[in-house]
Amino acid sequence: MDADAHNLSYWATVKQEAMLVAQMYPGDEFLSRVVPGTSVLDLGCGTGVITRWLAGKGYRMIGVDINEAAIQEAMTQDALNSYVLADITDALPYPDNSFDAIVLTYVLVSMIKHEVASAVARECVRLIRPGGYVWLCEALYSPEYAKRYERGFSETGMRNVAVALDEVGDVKRFIKHYEPSEIDDLFHPLTRVYDENKTIRSSGSGMEVVSTVRMYQKV
Ligand SMILES: C[S@@+](CC[C@H](N)C(=O)[O-])C[C@H]1O[C@@H](n2cnc3c(N)ncnc32)[C@H](O)[C@@H]1O
Fold this sequence. Notes:
seven-stranded mixed beta sheet, binds S-adenosylmethionine
């Protein structure tokens, strides 16, 4: 099964539910380094919960997502900032160096093949200005997910890919859990300036997943 195509059609059509916990919001490291008033791109913004939160801190926000209903909802709740319907694995319609920071919150978890995640990372590198930042929160490989990785492997032939199942046991979506070094490799032209691991309980599965919060700078 092409896990990325499956995920894309899942995310484009699913009714998005609030799945955020406070630990996933950009923390002090982001707030102290990225100056309010500057422009921030929230890739895979969903209904714009973090986009609006950052707008409330004074950033000029643009949110991008593949889910039309989520983008509509975001626009209804936030008339000041911009929301754009687009596939972030494609080239985005902004010039090089046009953002001060980019935020990715549980977005690379949906990018299963390396080349798909790297297309997103390359766009981030292109779009941030020199001195700008990429901030991300993504799930890491956890041994407790062994059973889910087994099913992911049998469906995709790829390691560290967990499955979320629906009520009848069919695959709802695939979830890529990263090794920290894989994330560093994706963003390798950038310099890592911050990283911290957090254990976050998934509102979907109820399981805890170790996640990494990382910040990279284009020096
Ligand atoms: C787990 S949700 C996280 C949403 C949001 N960042 C948050 O933290 O609330 C993943 C989001 O990425 C979006 N997404 C997944 N693949 C995408 C793609 N190829 N292009 C644009 N958005 C995508 C989904 O529609 C969804 O809103």
